[in-house]
Structures are given as C-alpha cells and as structure tokens.
Amino acid sequence: MQKMTRRDSILTMVSALAAGSTVARTKAQTMPGPVEAQATAPLYQAAQPSASDQAFEKFVDEYFDGFFQFNPARATSAGIHKYDGELPAYSQTDIQNEIARNQRALRELARIPSDGLSQNNLLDATVLASLINGRLLDLADIRMWAKDPGFYNAQAATALYTLVERDFAPLDDRLKSLIVRERRVPEILNNARANVVGPPAVYTRVAIEQAQAQLDFLQNVLPHAVAGAESPALKTEFEKVNQNAVSAYQQFLKYLQTGLTLQSQGNFALGAEIFRKKLLYDEMVDIPVKDLLKIGYKEMRRVQSLFKQAANIIDPTKTPLQVLQSIKQTAPAADQVIGNTQTVLDSLRQFLLSHEIVTVPAAPIPQVMGSPPFMRGLTFASMDTPGPFEDHSIQSFFYVTLPNPAWDEERKQQLLRFFNPFSTRVVAIHEVYPGHYVQFLWLKQAPTKARKLGSTMNGMSTSVEGWAHYCEEMMLEEGYGEGDPNLLLVQLQAALMRVCRYLAGIQLHTQGMTIEQASNLFQQEAYMETANAEREAMRGTFDPTYLAYTLGKLEIMKLREDYKKKLGDNFNLKAFHDQFLSYGIVPVKLVREQILQDRTPVL
Known about the structure:
mainly alpha
C-alpha cells in the first residue's frame, strides 16, 4: 500500500499535467490527512494565512473573475450577480483569449509554493490545476465551439434562462440584465455560422431541435416570464430586443436546416487518447479503456440479474419488459401530483432521520410546486436550488410539470404516467433526499470559495451524479420501500440506463460504435423505448463522460466497502456519508485519499 506524503509541488503538478505525465499527475493528486465530518462547521480551524495561502486565494479570485466573464450564466446560477448584465459574443477572438487566459492561469498557479498552503488550499489547488487543464482540453483540442452549432445556442439559452429561473432580485432589475444579454443573441448566432465548419451530422440534427425549442421559448415562454415587470419602458425595450432575437433564431434555424446540414460530414468520436485525458482531467480517473469496459459489462450483468429476479417475483408469467411496462402504467390524477410528491419528500426526509442515513443541514424544506409556465416545455421534474453564494432567493423548489388542461386525454395520461408512485420515489431520491439537494446543502458550507465554485466548471460529475445515483441504490439497501419489488425494478431500470450510458460513452468515442448500435444497446439492455434510446445514444456523442453516473457510483461503493474493512465494527454509514459530503464537490479520488490515507485504486 502506497502511503501519502505532504510535500507535493504545484509547480511539478502543473508542469506534469501540461506535459501529459500520468505518473506525475498521480503524485500531484496526493492530499494530506483525514478530516472529521462536520455538518455545521469548517473542516479545519482557521489559521493565519501564509504568503502561499494569500497568493492562492488571490489567484482564485482572479481566475473565477475571468471565468465568469466568459461564462456569466454560471455566475448567475452560483448566486454571484456581478455578471448578470454581461455576455460575450463567443467570437474566435473571445475563445482564443479564453484559451490564453487559462494557459496563463496554469503558469501562475505553478509559481505558488505548495509547502505553505493550508490543507484546504492544497486540495483546491490540486482540483483547479486539473479542471483548468480540462478547460484547455475542451477549448483547444476538442473544440466543440468549432464543430457543434449547439454550443452557441447553449450559451444564449442559459444566459437568458438563468435570469428568469428564480426571483433573486426584483423583476425589473433582472429584466434590465436580460435585455443586455439578449441583445447579444444575434451576434452569437452569427459567430456560430463563422466558427462551425463541417460538424458531425448528429450535432446539426440536435442543434436544429434545440434552436426550434429556443425559438418557442423566446416567442411563447420568455414574454410570460417577464410580463410582471412594472416599467413600461423596459417592457417596450424587451419586446424590441426579443423580436430581434426571434428573427435571428429564425434565420439561424433556416441556415442549420439547409446550408449547414449539407456540410455536416464530421466525426464526433474523440479518440482514445483525448477521451483518456478528458476522463483524467474532469474526474481524475486514469484507467485503461479496456479495463473500464470490463468494469462496465460486469456491472451491467449484475444489475440485469437483479432486474430479472425482481420481475420474476412480481409476475413470473410475464417477461421483465412486460412487468416494467405494467408498473409504469399507473398514473395519478393531475390534482394529486403535487400532494403525492410532497408526501414522498416528507417520507424520504423522515427516513434519513430515523435510519441515520446522513446529516441534513438546516435549511428551508424544498417546496413542491407546479413548474412555472416558462419551464413547462423544458422538464418533467426538476430540482431548483439557489447557488452557493445566493443570499436573496434561498428557497429550494422541486418542480413537477402538470398537464395542460387543453391537451387531449392520451397526452395528459402520457405525462401523468411519469409520476407513477415508483418512478416518483426514485427521481426524488436522486434529485432531493439524499441526492442533489442534500449535497447542495453541504456545498453551501464548504470551507473555501474555490470549493464552492469548482462545480461551476466542467468536470467532477462522478462526485455529483455519482453521489445521486449511488443514493438510489443505497436507500433501497437500507430499507426504504420495505423491499417492494416494484420499486426495486424501477430503480434497477434507472441503473441499467446509466450503465448503458457508461458503455456507450466509452465505445462511441474509442471503439467505433455507431449511434444505431448505441441505441440498440439502450433498447436491449436497459429496456428503453426506441425514441428515448435514440436520444440517449445521441447524447453520448457530445457528452462523452456521461459514464459519470455509474463510474461515480462504483467509486463511492468501493470507497465505502474499503472504509468498512479498515474500520471494522467502528464503521458508521451516516458518519461515512457526512465525511464524504464534507469535502464539497471534488473528485472521488481525492476524497478517497483523504478518508483512507492511501493511494489504493478507485475501482
């Protein structure tokens, strides 16, 4: 067993990451000593900051200032509203400047002596070095800005949506910022035309769907979201700016459907080496592809076996797919959805307390509400939590989308079947208790600014989606649902979908798997309908690390089992969960090193 040391140079770490040295990267990710989990206090006692600490904290301030200038919607989501009235046009000059800024940041980080850093700052420096390298990989090597027209739609759409998503300021103030951002939309779409050349056909296909949805958002949803503004002048200005954005999207959509579609001959696959680097930088996982696939197929066989056993218990006369379909046919009445969902959340929260699953830090209890009108076309159910720096709008909402009374009965029932009692519980575990919402509460009290903001960058999904997916399985293991095989079957189908993401993501980008083959994988192994399977397969082409759900779950499960072996009878599940969450959102690898004090494999 390789023990850990304290003296790891950030200079060595950054140089190694930049040079692509796997060995040096592994050394640089080593972190000192374990911590005791605390739900309401910092991980470490405050001490007089050293010169290194002061330099690093200045670096964090400056780095995220530049990051949020390039990604202002992420600042808005984080509860930092200094950038609400900003939005770049994402020209090639803007993008090249962002690449250069990240290159400078790595050099600056390398100059900070690691010996003088506090334990928290050393951990944060390790994470930031990896994430900044991930940013450079995305912008300079993968270059989605040059091959995915949807990149530009995403920037424009999130910039507007985050300003109306929650009431963090008076509507008139938010409308002022929205007008400034929306003025940029035509320029952003023009830059998409200039920058994107020869994209993969699937990217153009998805971008067309996204542009159509955004056009509907601008025409029918956004005006409703700002209708309550008081200033007539602001409303008039918004109508003008919004119409310009609508016209720009109409022209952009026509361009996608005609000109760009004919040019869409590109390859979406990253290739094995870029895929390896992305997984390393984003998740700090450096496992050979062939070994990752073995792990994934082993997990799929395990879950498949459990799925078939559960289906056989429910009805041995039907196939597993028939059993699953019959379970999901149960639909509540529309006026029961909110009450049923609130009851589920209450039962989950009580289960966490009575079974000592995890500490839930004090905070307003999430309120179940019908999705606001401007969100109804975007989601079935969603968790809306304030950012870690949000001080004004601190209520969390679990939104459920109710059917439009004007719909025909079949369309209403199709939506309501999503809220069958079993799927509702699995989704609530993942999104609320003890999944994303509880993790958010712990993130709010993270000890450093860097820890709170690191999750605004791409990466560390194994710690976020991995945790939420782990919770689905863990809660049933601990007795939630009292062994109901119907609930288990629905949870296992969700697990099969995630393990198919794992396998598809790897094989689409490193093994020559086609979209059709990936779709077949989801249909045959996860019992998904054709349309949903195709959508999942397409997602894998532009979200290569959506393996993070299963990968993170497996990492956490192995950490838990290894910690059990180490502590023996002294192991306590609640203490383990509290300790895991106390680190904030950082790669599971680093949490593992902290808790176990060794460098044993993550899987």
